[in-house]
Design goal:
Largest sheet: 4 strands, antiparallel
Radius of gyration: 21 Å
Structural class: mainly beta
Distance between the termini: 86 Å
Shape: rod-shaped
Oligomer: single chain
Length: 131
C-alpha cells in the first residue's frame, strides 16, 4: 500500500512539474508607421511583452524578413510576471522605391507559444530628389 501511495505521489509531482512553463503575451503584434518620407530617417517602434507563465521566459532570437528591418530584444531571462521589449527599426534608406510595405519579425521563445510573428508596415513617400 505504501508503494502504491508513493507511486501516485511521484506521478502527481511529475505532472505538476511538466505543467510549469513560461508564456509570452504581447500587448500588440503589429505596428503601422503611417506615411513618412525616406528623408525622415529610420522608423522605430517597440513591442512590449509579459511573461504570464510560471517559469523564466527566454527570447532566443527575433529575425526580420529583410535587411531593411532590424529587431533588438531583451536577452536576459524574463521572470514570471515581468516584462520585456522587442525594438524594431525600419531603415528606409536601404530601399530604392517608395510605397506600401509590410515586414515581419519572427520571434522564437522557450515558452508558449514558441514562435510569434510581429508585423510593421507603413507607406514611404518619395522625396523630391527621388522623383
Amino acid at each position: 500500500m505504501k508503494k502504491l501511495l508513493f507511486a501516485i505521489i511521484a506521478l502527481m509531482s511529475v505532472s505538476l512539474c511538466t505543467m510549469a512553463e513560461p508564456k509570452v503575451k504581447f500587448e500588440k503584434v503589429s505596428h503601422n508607421f503611417g506615411k513618412f518620407k525616406k528623408s525622415d530617417g529610420p522608423q522605430t517602434c517597440v513591442f512590449n511583452f509579459t511573461n504570464t507563465g510560471d517559469e523564466d521566459l527566454l527570447i532566443y532570437r527575433a529575425v526580420a524578413s529583410c535587411g531593411c528591418t532590424v529587431a533588438k530584444f531583451t536577452k536576459t531571462p524574463v521572470k514570471p510576471g515581468a516584462t520585456g521589449t522587442i525594438s524594431v527599426e525600419y531603415n528606409a534608406s536601404r530601399i530604392q522605391l517608395g510605397g506600401h510595405f509590410k515586414k515581419s519579425i519572427t520571434v522564437n521563445t522557450n515558452g508558449k507559444p514558441e514562435m510569434v510573428r510581429l508585423f510593421v508596415e507603413g507607406d514611404m513617400e518619395a522625396d523630391v530628389e527621388d522623383k
